[in-house]
Specification:
By secondary structure, the chain is α/β, with parallel strands linked by helices. Helix content is 31%, strand content 16%. The two termini are 23 Å apart. InterPro entries: Epimerase_deHydtase (IPR001509), NAD(P)-bd_dom_sf (IPR036291).
Length: 278
Amino acid sequence: MKKIILTGAAGRLGSYLREPLSKLADVLVSTDLAENVGNLYEGESYVRADLTNFDEIKALLKGADMVVHFGAYGDEASFETILGPNIIGAYNIWEAAAQNGVRRVVYASSIHAVGMHSKMDFIGTDAPHRPDTFYGLAKCFSEDLASLYWDKRGVESVCMRILSCAQVTNARALGTWLSYDDLIHLVEQCISTPTTKFTVVYGVSNNDRVPVDNAKASYLGYRPKDNAEQFAKEILAETPPLDHSDPEHMCVGGPFASVELGNSGLATMNIINDTKKS
């Protein structure tokens, strides 16, 4: 592969993807709004670009084989805040991909596109959209955009509904954890699978308590190895009885299912910032 574009390269998840992606193509172009992303890996360059600026994105994607799209506002916020980077930015990525003849977009979607489903239902990749926030609504839009651009423009997409890609610090994460190693494996499979058309897959590790079913995306060859059960004894010992009437504990979206629209869903999640340094 000649050229891969990685958006959101300055983010926490992007920081773990840069090195492995640099080994999958002759050229990796990392991009974000930050001034830089530190030291560059062999074959990697960095271009500062704004997702809401179509001309910048169209120029960025010129000559690319694939786009790994992780750029976004990464929390619940007002609709106006979400609109630019998460909705208009998504349109700009897929339209620029189509105009440039990009083969595939590998997209960091989210469990929050279906966040109001019960975690007892063991939903599959064909579960209907049921967003829990404006943030989740934007993920629904992008997934539908991806489907549309496959049907009408022939741009393949894999929409990875990531659950919880962060250190395990709470009981919910015993089911929703996606380790960084499994994240890398998932993205690599989304890139290397010969044909994907429009595909949805859950980004989650091989947890005993996993609340979603990836059976219909098995052709991607994604076989996660890590299991959050190793943290269960310690986490559950520190967890008080949960309120079964609270959507936070009963829905797959967790805290995002219970916050008021526009309010941060990450505020109570104790996300540890362990961004990888290059």
